[in-house]
Amino acid sequence: MSPAVLLLLAFGLGLVGWLAARSRAWAFRRAAPGGRIHSLPNFHAWYVALWIAVPALLFAFAWNAISPGLITQSVLADPAASVLPAFGFERDSMLSEARAVATGSAAAVFNTEAQGLVEPFRAAILRYEAIGLIVTVLIAFAGGAFSFLRLTPDFTARTRVERAVMNLLLFASLVAILTTLGIVASLVFETARFFSMVSPIDFLFGTHWAPDPMSSGAVDGKQFGAIPLFWGTIYIGAIIAMIVAIPLGLMSAIYLTQYASNGVRQVMKPLLEILAGVPTVVYGYFAALTVAPAVRDAAQAIGIASASTESAVAAGLVMGVMIIPFVSSMADDSIAAVPQAMRDGSLAMGATKAETIRKVLVPAALPGIVAGVMLAISRAIGETMIVVMAAGASANLTANPFQSMTTVTFQIVAMLTGEGSFDHPATLSAFALGMVLFLVTLTLNFIALRVVKRYREAYE
Amino acid sequence: MNAPAPAAAPAAVFPDPVAEAKISAKNVSVFYGTKRAIDDVSIDIPRSYVTAFIGPSGCGKSTFLRSLNRMNDTIPGARVEGEILLDGEDIYRSKMDVVQLRARVGMVFQKPNPFPKSIYDNIAYGPRIHGVTGSKSELDGIVETSLQRAGLWDEVKDRLSDSGTALSGGQQQRLCIARAIAVDPEVILMDEPCSALDPIATARIEELIDELRGRYAIVIVTHSMQQAARVSQRTAFFHIGKIVEYGTTSDIFTNPREERTKDYITGRYG
């Protein structure tokens, strides 16, 4: 008996309840004077169906979560379990082997001792499945009976169903929020473990980053100075990428909103937005295979001998191109939102189109443009694939854009996929880095949203 | 400008020199795409009078007004046929510089539209883009004169650096008039300048229009017949894209020649 069966059962019973309640409500309606009852028959039907399916499904989910534990306990209580070793890895593997045979997902046991547990497992699984099935059906019937008996011509089924719909919507919106909270909680927990080994001051203000995932013994906090990472992230994501993205994004937005004919706009805007849909790993190839060598050759040609193949400028350039659509679409929206009256006022003064754009439209749209830039920065500094492929791994603290640099995101990947054990400080440092990154992007997004909100109020 | 007066407006209507034509439209039609919004309109707008365009909604009076300083150019698909002469020069000829035209023919819109800049910068906007001033003190002088002529100086002289959008609706509209005056235009077009204002602010704008008369040729589009009667000396009645009747305001309101004008003025329709 699988969860799918319980699901189908709940829905099937719900459908039966739906049909029954509907025909009952139709009967009310025929009997009622003037053919009017408080709620339409469909609402009665949904009310009963919800009362049947929702509690039964909730129980089925809960049962699915707790029954494996109950099954294991009852098997352990069986005399055959005495053959098991007391604790540890072997005991767990034998139990799961026996369970696999009992459920039919494995043909035979590998450990002969586990053979004796197959039968108890099979019996326990059957027993608990039967209990689950019976209780589910009982709950469905109880819910159905309770709700069905409440139906009267005056029953406020519509109000109740609408409240249920609202709760469903509330639940849906909570899922995203709770997920965010869960992410933060897991980050906080691991970050706290990291900071119990490495001082936050060494981490936040140290300038030397060279964690050794294979080291053992005392932790050297001096290896975990993250300043070069923060610098690399800001240099690539917030400086080089923005030098590319802000002018190009803004100018393309101005062209598209003010100069392009309708036909051109309809072709160019989607094409520009395709940039945002290119997988970042593809940008990574492009940065590493095409842009980086070209940048190196160009730098060497003008006499910068230290230029390396992996350079901050290659990663930053490609990242800038990637976020052009973020800047341009926000700028586009906010320029288009400047009232036509503003534009007319300026043109009627004898201003040219360019003067109108420079002196009226862009200043009026500035808050929206700034917000777009901030969202773009938070996107850029969280970006991973391009820097992994093009920026390099060495934590240099330098202003030379032709040198290799590394970023927070790159080091998170490097530390988590490294060979260190999971509770090694080098691995845990990834969580601390993630936490910092999360806080920075959260702040940027928060500021951007506030700016956008104030700006919206200004025109309404 | 010495063109023969159109049949609808006999020369006898303008005996005095101040009524000599500043703008002369001849057989003007305006199209939006294929839709004809203005159909063969001819009119002489006098140099020193206030001319009112009245008529029911959608009759084309605003469209015609916007064609007088080529603001219709900003609407995709809009097209003007015929001739509009400003001091005898066709404003639609290919060599006409729209920027200079609009400096000579200013416009005030239905809804006050000050720029989100300081009061000072709002007024200084036009002089700056046309480069008419060399010095700061000269610009200060233009700002002060314009605000004084618009009757706003005493209310805002101590807060010229405040945002223009922080003023009340009536003050904003007078700011927009001051902004139009600042580039020293010859003609001021007003497209229902009081429709977003309360009666007191409206009365203030009407007084202002009366004070400005003589210095500029003023053309005002209005929905309010009382307003047309109060502020204008010439009135044109538009209906379905044509001028039904054009004459002195007192004639139009007391002694209309056309039945349709009479019906509109007495509130029979519109």
Structure explained in plain terms:
The complex is a heterodimer of chains A (460) and B (270). Chain A is mainly alpha-helical. Chain A folds into two domains: 3-155, no CATH class; 221-458, MetI-like fold (Orthogonal Bundle). Chain A is built from 15 helices and no strands. Chain B is of the alpha/beta class. In chain B, a hairpin with a 2-residue loop joins strand 4 (78-86) and strand 5. In chain B, helix 3 packs parallel to helix 6 (169-181). Chain A binds chain B through residues 262, 339, 341-352, 355, 359-360, 363-364, 458, and chain B through 69, 71, 74, 76, 98-103, 106-107, 109, 111, 113-117, 125-126, 129-130, 176, 179-180, 183.
User: What is the first-to-last residue Cα distance of chain B?
Assistant: 33 Å
Encode the helix/strand succession of chain A as letters: HHHHHHHHHHHHHHH
Q: Which chains have the largest interface? A: A-B, 20 and 27 residues
Distance between the termini of chain A: 59 Å
Q: What's the CATH topology label of chain B?
A: Rossmann fold
Spans of at least 5 consecutive residues with low confidence of chain A: none
The CATH superfamily of chain B appears as P-loop containing nucleotide triphosphate hydrolases
The tally of structural domains of chain B comes to 1
Query: How large, in whole angstroms, is the Cα Rg of chain A?
Result: 32 Å
Oligomer: heterodimer
Number of helical elements of chain A? 15
Top CATH class of the largest domain in chain A: Mainly Alpha
Q: Tell me the series of helices and strands of chain B, N- to C-terminal.
A: EEEHEEHEHHHHEHEHEEHH
Share of β-strand residues of chain A:
under 5%
The total strand number of chain A stands at 0
